[in-house]
Amino acid sequence: MAINLDELDPDQRVAATAPRGPVCILAGAGTGKTRTITYRIAHLIDQGFVGPNRVLAVTFTARAAGEMRHRLARMGIGGVQARTFHAAARRQLRYFWPQVAGDLPWRLLDNKFPLVGRATRSVGVDSGTETVRDILGEIEWAKASLITPDAYAEAIAGTQRTPPVEAEKVAEVYRRYERAKTSEEGMLLDFDDLLLHTAAALENAPAVAEEFHEQYRSFVVDEYQDVTPLQQRVLDAWLGERDDLTVVGDANQTIYSFTGASPDFLLNFTRKYPDATLTRLERDYRSTPQVTRLANAVIGRAKGRVAGTRLELTGMRDPGPEPEFSVHDDEPAEAAAVAKKIAELIDSGVSPAEIAVLYRINAQSAVFEQALSDAGIVYQVRGGEGFFNRAEVRKAITELVRAAQRDDLPAEAVGPGLRVVARAVLAPLGLTPEEPEGAQARERWQSLNALVELVHELGLATPDLDMNGLLVQLKNRAEAKHPPTVQGVTLASLHAAKGLEWDAVFLVGLVENTLPISHAIKAGDHQIEEERRLFYVGVTRARTHLFCSWALARQEGGRKSRKRTRFLDGIVTDPEPVERGTSRNRPKRCRVCGSPLESPQEKVLRRCIDCPGGADDGIFEQLRAWRAETAREDQVPAYIVFSDATLMAIAEAMPADERELLGVSGVGPVKVDKYGDRVLAIVNGTLD
Ligand code: ATP
Ligand code: MG
């Protein structure tokens, strides 16, 4: 077993090595919560406190569950159940159902829409798609909040939710929908029913509870700030009288309240378990100080109870570039600029798999997909959980199954040798030695290549794995929805980006009515705060490069009526609009002689190198001396403070105040925050 607790800092180690019993880690983004619980599980097992198959780890997504199992496997620990609440409940229910319901059959209802639509019509309400979807959302919220149809109308009155139609009518649709799921042939269970029935089975059937409690001893929940009352009820039923529970979360990353989730369970944890070990982590290992400073500024403006619990993050990574902000005429222009930037990052050595474009709603992806395709950049839209469902991957697996049945398999088709065999089998499907041209062929190639890499990874992990064993593992993977990482740029919604990280993150479409989204604005402060947290989640996904952008109009030539998101108020002053096509089509010109500018240095200065800039040499020298001193104090290279070109540009612009200083190229809000006073004092001659 390879558990090295030195890979944790002292605070993390306290949580990971706490004795059995309740543990709560309350910590900000990137502080190593997920890492710590993974080590905690490993430690509990390593020390013999609990067997691997007696631990149940609950994660927010199937992907996160796969990731956790993968990390544990790397530490030599297999057999831990890591699942989402739903997946865990589904498995348990399948097992316990006969004990609680006899031979009454049940089936999972994965599309509620038709049933809710029918119920809506039967109540005499307009059953347009929008209305049905909204009513469905209400039913889901009510079920997750443990609110019955009879209690719905009263419950909603006490919230900021506005039902899509009269509350009584929603309640009636809810009631009829619930009834419609049961017939003589059996029961249809929706996702929430899986949880409800699991909890009920454990609560009401002592034999079931006993068997379950015998099996599972230790529970770990990640992203606990987004647990719903229904999930909490399941968790309580799992625990019974025991308290061997570790929870981790960040109340300031609560972004699923609209589904009924609440950070209260996290914030009240130590009240429920007064003996709990409580740890707070503040060191952010994910992001540079430049990124964490922006994150702190964003969440620093939050209001309400949750905001009161926030911690100030300290970026532990080496300094990096300042976050960049840009405004564009329209969405296609914004997307084109993003694609161009991405191409530059890739050229400079950032792997495409380490780049993400994040947006508020899925529909925003289309314009970015288009721009990335145009630029020849490979991308994948999340849920990448669809990997095993892609036609080429399904076909590839069929071919591998066929190959496994052949009796002339080469002897080296085991362990690390599986890769060669897989390559040969998949070559006829389009896995050429070199990546082909053409979007379709390339996408297919990328998928097949990713599959071979996965085969390789599995082969390395188990040196005596044969073809049949491999197929079993692939099947497990497919079921666990843990796709291999395709080497492409990720496009995802902010909600789906939770818990993940990339070297470079683009937060796009940052305009009012998109972020915050219009219905949140209508609903009021509570929901606006949730949108702010969503933005905070986005900012904190970035390790090094962060780009925030927005467009003034939707379509080319459209009315430029959009406003930048309020969440950047006081943090950034609007940058100059980036002109379509930027430097290539419309070069920036020298403010003195009007010639096109070439070098980055000239662009910062907004003049040719040889043209007179009008700087006061004395000021420039003073700025340089100040920079040298500051760089020494902060222990960073001088250019991290300001480049020569920026210092010269400041000396030439002679900004009178912060706003003017922000107008100088190379000066961002974070720098103004940090150095603004001193720089302005030098420029204005008021330095003491
Ligand atoms: P989020 O709130 O976004 O879910 P988190 O608190 O779960 O974040 P992790 O994903 O566990 O954070 O860690 C963030 C990054 O920092 C990861 O890349 C992780 O490997 C790294 N990290 C965590 N702890 C340490 C440490 N003690 N030393 C070095 N790197 C660390
Ligand atoms: Mg995490």
Automatic annotation (TrEMBL):
Signal peptide residues on this chain, from the entry's feature table: none
GO molecular function, one term: 3'-5' DNA helicase activity
GO cellular component, one term: DNA helicase complex
Enzyme class name: isomerase
Segments forming domain UvrD-like helicase ATP-binding: 6-288
PROSITE patterns in the record: HRDC (PS50967), UVRD_HELICASE_ATP_BIND (PS51198), UVRD_HELICASE_CTER (PS51217)
SMART domains membership: HRDC (SM00341)
Listed cofactors: Mg(2+)
Keyword DNA repair: yes
Keywords from the UniProt entry: ATP-binding, DNA damage, DNA repair, DNA-binding, Helicase, Hydrolase, Isomerase, Nucleotide-binding
Positions annotated to bind ATP: A27, G28, A29, G30, T31, G32, K33, T34
Reactions this protein catalyses: ATP + H2O = ADP + phosphate + H(+); Couples ATP hydrolysis with the unwinding of duplex DNA by translocating in the 3'-5' direction
Protein name listed in UniProt: DNA 3'-5' helicase
